[in-house]
Amino acid sequence: MQLIGCILLSPMDVVFKALADSSRRKLLDELHKENGQTLSELCEQLEMTRQAVTKHLVLLEKASLIAVVWRGREKLHYLNPMPLHEIYERWIGKYERHRLQALSDLKRGLESSAGRIRRGGQTKTKQKTRRKEKWRTRDRRSLT
Hints:
Oligomer: single chain
CATH architecture of the largest domain: Orthogonal Bundle
Order of helices and strands: EEHHHHEEH
CATH topology of the largest domain: Arc Repressor Mutant, subunit A
Structural class: alpha+beta
Largest sheet: 2 strands, antiparallel
Strand content: 5-15%
CATH superfamily of the largest domain: Winged helix-like DNA-binding domain superfamily/Winged helix DNA-binding domain
């Protein structure tokens, strides 16, 4: 839980807050393209001041969406996909499972009914063949 003013936010709320801004999402996209970028490299990608980018990076770091590694005097920023995966599992995955199960059930149902239709079609074909054979036999008898 994170305290903001007098409001306690859960870790997932902090992640949603961080993702609410398009500039922060663009920063995450840039880190996804090339992980381990410095502040200067990230500033080149966005039309923002260093201070603005720094503020966005601080929020992303508080939400654990990025991890920071110091290499000498350089501060490298890396994408941390775990909070996004947790959101996927909590908010998307459970709904997707039901939809996929419904599609699977529909497929099985259609395949079984198609099998019944095919079997029924074979029976009708056999019946037609038998009728034709009867008429041919009758025709031959009548000719002789």
